[in-house]
């Protein structure tokens, strides 16, 4: 079982996935900072000083009461849109760097179908009579 686990971990796909997850976590921290420290203040400036992260509706009384924090959801949505856009741009750049897709070779002309062959045999047999 240990040997199988070592073989599984040593596969290239698993290592590539691990590197991707680590880079993704670091990238998420960068995007979160970008949104929180740069984009939200600009949006807040145009929206009259509103801080999205503090937006919410208190559902119960008290300091520890439940809060419907829709501002945090707005922040998460902005983060997602930025990350999705950056990933889109990265994929687009990688595809452009790879170059155009090689065109598929044209298929060889198809031969006659079974029906066509059978009709030719039938016609040949009729011509012999």
- Report the structural category: mainly alpha
Mean pLDDT: 80
Q: What kind of sheet is the major sheet? A: 2 strands, antiparallel
The number of helical segments is: 4
Gyration radius, rounded: 31 Å
Produce the secondary structure layout.
Layout: H1 2-10, H2 12-46, E1 57-58, E2 67-68, H3 70-98, H4 114-128
Antiparallel strand pairs: 1-2
Helix pairs in contact: 2-3
Describe the structure.
- The protein is 68% helix and 3% strand.
- The longest helix has 35 residues, at 12-46.
- It starts with a helix and ends with a helix.
- The chain is built from four helices and two strands; from the N terminus they run H-H-E-E-H-H.
- It is mainly alpha-helical and 129 residues long.
- The model has no long low-confidence stretch (mean pLDDT 80).
Explain briefly what this protein structure is.
The chain has 129 residues and is mostly helical. Helix content is 68%, strand content 3%.
Protein traits:
4 helices; mainly alpha
């Amino acid at each position: 079982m240990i040997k199988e686990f070592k073989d599984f971990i040593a596969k290239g796909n698993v290592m590539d996935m691990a590197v991707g997850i680590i880079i993704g976590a670091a990238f998420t921290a960068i995007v979160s900072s970008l949104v929180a420290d740069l984009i939200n203040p600009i949006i807040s400036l145009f929206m009259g000083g509103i801080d999205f992260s503090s937006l919410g509706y208190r559902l119960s009384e008290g300091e520890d009461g439940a809060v419907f924090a829709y501002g945090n959801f707005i922040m998460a949505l902005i983060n997602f849109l930025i990350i999705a856009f950056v990933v889109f741009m990265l994929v687009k750049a990688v595809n452009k760097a790879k170059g155009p897709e090689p065109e598929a070779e044209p298929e060889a002309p198809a031969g006659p179908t079974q029906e066509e062959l059978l009709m030719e045999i039938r016609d040949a047999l009729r011509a012999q009579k």
